[in-house]
Structure formats: C-alpha cells, structure tokens
Amino acid sequence: MSLRVDIVCGTYPPDRCGVADYTRRLCAGLRDLGVDARVVTTCGLDAHADPAVPADCLAKDWGVRSAFALARNLAEREPDIVHVQFPAYRYHGHWGVHVLPMLLSRSGVPVITTLHEYCMAPWGGRLKQLLNVGFSRRVIVTNAQDRELIGRWMPQERLDLIPIGSNIPLTGAREHGQEILHSLGVSAANDVALFFDNYGIMIRSGFHCAQPLHQVFKLQSSARASFYIYNTREEIDRFTEVLKEIEQL
Predict the structure, then answer these.
(1) Contact (CB, 8 A) for 35 and 1
(2) How far apart are CA 90 and CA 209, in angstroms?
(3) Which CATH number covers residue 237?
(4) Strand partners of residue 222
(5) Among 64, 93, 97, 242, which residue's beta carbon has the most beta carbons within 10 A?
(6) Residue 171: partners with Cβ closer than 8 Å, 6 or more residues away
C-alpha cells in the first residue's frame, strides 16, 4: 500500500500565489514517486486546475469552526500524513490553519507543517505559527534564518531546512543571470531580487499575498524588502547602497 498524504493549502492555481504553485508541484512530484498525494484547499477553487494533480475543495473558510469540520473530514480520509502549507493569502489571518494541527493530533493524524516565510511575519503572526510548530511532528522551513528562529522553540531533530524558490543560492554564470531570466519571461521584480542576492541581501519578489493590490496598480509583480527589529544599521546602509546602484542601471 502506498503512502497517503493530504497537502493542505488555502490557495491553489489558478490563484496567483507562489505557495499554491509550490503545493501543486510538490503534489505532482510525490505522485511521481508513487505516493498517493492529494491537495486539500478552499471551497470554490478549481479542483481540476491541473489534471495530473488530484485536489479536493474541503475548507469552507479558515475560521476555527471550519477547522473543526475540516479536521473531522481529514481524519475520516485516514491519511498517513497531513502536510500543512503556510502562508496563503486565503487564510486571511484567521486561526483555523493554526489550530488544525492540534485538532488532527487529537485524532491521531500526524502533521507536518511547512512555514515559508516565518521571519517576515510580525510578532502576532509568529505567535500564531507557533501553534503549528507545537502540534506538528516535523516542521519544514525554507531559509536558515527561519531555522534559527524556530529552533529556539522546538528540538532541532524535528526541524528541517529545505531551500526552495528564490531562497536557493545562485551558483555560476552570474554575469548571464539576467539574460537568462529575460529569455524565460521572468518579471523585473525577480531581476531586482536577483541583483540584491548578488550582494547577499534577501528580498521577496512576487505578489506577497496581495494580488488585489497588484491588480489595482496594474502590476505583474513587485519586490519587497522587510525590515524588523533584528536588522542592524549597517545592514540598512548596505541595502541603501545597493538600491542606489539599481537606480543607476
């Protein structure tokens, strides 16, 4: 019997969301390995967006009451693992996705949570995510800074780092990087992120879970720098210097 995995994500293509696309690709990759993987997402989305990836729209919304119903539904499916993806803009700051691991653990269903950008969340958002940390068998993060921060709250043996997307370090052919991106139709925001990465500065490019705002300003994507209390003056000065270099291009 193959391993059964339900991957929970609030968004799903055609939603324009990096985590949604990652979830679709992850599910497809697991199925290629013989895993019985399915996506579980929000009601009203297109469960047939990718014929190669089975998806079920089971979450009415992401409030706590709906989380109880979703947990019962998932437990009845008897998966070997439930893998929760966070964030996704359809969660809308609600608590349901954060209490879901606790509810599933009470039913004996093991949960893994992937936190894609913990370090960029405000303190309130981080506290909510600690519920996922506390009730998940394992937690996956996508960058070293998140591993350091979350490692303060859980044993290292339950924490895994899997770099994905723009968090993967660039290797080789940096001088041709932008030509390659343009040939693939990658947006200018990604160009900016790549430029900063050359100087060891990580910023985000994409929609940042704010698709309606991008539609209002008719933007295909944008670049976002997130400053917080752990940033030093030297880091801010360095960011400003690199930003001035971009303006001169």
Answers:
(1) no
(2) 8
(3) 3.90.1150.10
(4) 206
(5) 97
(6) none
Among 118, 134, 166, the domain boundary falls at 166
Same domain (yes/no): 177, 97: no
Yes or no: say if 113 and 97 are a contact pair by the CB < 8 Å rule. Answer: no
- Could you tell me the CA-to-CA distances from 26 to 152, 180, 198 in Å, in that order? 28, 25, 28
How many distinct structural domains can be found in the chain?
2
Residue 64 amino acid letter: V
Helix (H) or strand (E) segment spanning residue 224:
strand 222-224
Looking at the structure, do residues 10 and 133 belong to the same domain, yes or no? yes
Q: Tokens standing for 146?
A: 């998140």
Residue 140 has pLDDT above 70, yes or no: yes
Contacts of 68 (CB under 8 A, 6+ apart): 103
Q: Alpha-carbon distance 25 to 20, whole Å?
A: 9
- Tell me, yes or no, whether 160 and 38 share the same domain: yes
Same domain? For 211 and 88 the reply is no
Contact 221, 189 (CB under 8 A): yes
pTM over 0.90: no
Tell me the pLDDT tens digit for each residue of 174-222.
Answer: 555 556 555 555 556 767 777 777 777 878 777 777 777 777 777 777 8
What is the spatial order of strands in the sheet that 138-141 belongs to? 55-59, 36-42, 4-8, 81-86, 111-115, 138-141, 159-161
Mean pLDDT, all residues of the chain: 86
Give me the pLDDT at residue 236, please. 86
Domain that holds residue 70: 4-166
CA dihedral for 97, 225, 190, 195, sign (positive or negative): negative
Nearest to 202 by CA among 120, 89, 88, 125: 120
Q: SS3 helix, strand, coil % of the chain, rounded to 5?
A: 45, 15, 40
What's the whole-number mean pLDDT along residues 61-83? 97
